[in-house]
């Protein structure tokens, strides 16, 4: 049974459950939604990420969460915390936040609503000293939200990842301290 980590006005943020891979595959794994994340994944890749996320939650008390729309009960995205684990990153082990919203819910404010709850969880119960978020320069909606959340661009932590197509190869980073977060609240 998944744990409810947070609730917002419109969303329930809950942990990953054993049966979620097929639903994620159906509603989130589209070419448009996954365009800046290396494209759609195979079911076994999603299941492996879920297993990794469940292990992270059991070990550290945080992971990625599914966003369930209160009005419909439908999965509309995921957001959460993981540890930076890209071998090319210079900030391995930092608490990384991220999010993904299904296409028919874009531009409704769900990403911001969910990520604000995740940041509160990260600086509260999780006790993260600071947070980072990674994206590509081409993913304008993502880095615009990072800026709206008060995150600061960290060019010194950018890196190139040859696993991505040329337009998404340069990974850019933003960071946020608890003090920066609290000063804007």
Automatic annotation (TrEMBL):
Pfam families cross-referenced by the UniProt entry: Acetyltransf_3
SUPFAM superfamilies given in the database record: Acyl-CoA N-acyltransferases (Nat)
Keywords, in A-Z order: Transferase
Residues in N-acetyltransferase domain copies: 11-179
InterPro entries the record matches: Acyl_CoA_acyltransferase, GNAT_dom, N-acetyltransferase
GO molecular function list: acyltransferase activity, transferring groups other than amino-acyl groups
Name of the featured protein: GNAT family N-acetyltransferase
